[in-house]
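SEVERITY: medium
COMPONENT: batch folding queue
REPORTER: lab tech (J.R.)

DESCRIPTION
The queue accepted two submissions in a row. Attaching both inputs and their returned structure tokens so the on-call engineer can compare them side by side.

ATTACHMENT 1
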Amino acid sequence: MPCSERIWKRTGDERENITMALQFTTSYLEDTVSLFRYHKNLAEQAMAQVSDQQLLAVLDPETNSIAIIVKHLTGNMRSRWSGFPDADGEKPDRDRDSEFLNPSATRAELMDSWEEAWSIVFAALASLSDADLGRTTTIRGEPHSVMQAITRQLAHYAYHCGQIVLLAKHFQGDQWKSLTIPRGQSAKFNQRVKAGEASQR
């Protein structure tokens, strides 16, 4: 497969995070899809570590909860990727301000919305070829190449997925299970990369 694949292996009472080796590609779309999946997976593994109450918790009145970040991301995804690249990325029925209010009350609702929105992203990307990257699409009427629009969304989602990971790590404290390279294990990880057992992603 063209992307790195993250899996979990149970070793005793712990789960070991294993990332399969990256497959070399010169396709922008293949690499971008792998990065979207990577950030999606990081956020999911972070959310899996927190309680239902922590999904709704805020650090202060000016910060968003994990649930609010998810609601904003899913609203953005539905707007940007429905009809992509022919339709404008900001749909007339999107109410962006409402995405920062009244998040889903349950984990099940939150994750159903998350999966539904990501399915729109991946379906839109699957319909493209690298030959489409130079086509023109618009967001709020502003012209972008397809490549620019994809990169814009990748950066946006990485930003918010990083916020989810940071919040989850804060809530979990010393119970946090690392999603990347655990502290003090960089040399071991580098050896695994060289052996083709892991990926920098």
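ATTACHMENT 2
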Amino acid sequence: MDINCVPEVVNGVDWSKIGPAILGTVLSVVVSGVLFFVKNNIDKKIREENQKKTDLDQLDKQLDDILKIAISYPYLETKKFCETWDKTKAEIGDDCDRYQRYSVFCNLVFNYLSRLAEYCEYDLECIQKQHINMKEWVRLHQKNWNDPLNDPNENIDSYDEKFVALVNKCLGKH
């Protein structure tokens, strides 16, 4: 008997008819699996891109809202006013409403910057070149960042370490 010859009938099974059917079934399962895997990866990428777009739209809306407040109360974005920040001014005095408003405004600014930093994976270059001048904004409001109204550790405890490090980098505190 020739060893290279496979008999067509073994134990009453005609392999010349069953072999191609099994091969076809195996190939069909493999191709279906590959197509399923590829489709899921494509769908996942599309979902991620859509989520990224949604996140960016939300960030844009937050920035617009902050800018509308700054237009309504322009002193909130002036260097002369920001440099006068002292939390005691928000607690007593004739201008306490202005300083309380400023404290809340700074919270909005830093909350926005925190979300933007996360969106940009804490890449300062991405933030600076593709979105806003974070350094300038952080430096303008640094007195409030360093000495917040309610608790001296409010900012370093409220934000994640990566964001705090990024703010410190903007302030030259590596």
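NOTES FROM REPORTER
The longest strand covers residues 9-10.
No errors were logged for either attachment.
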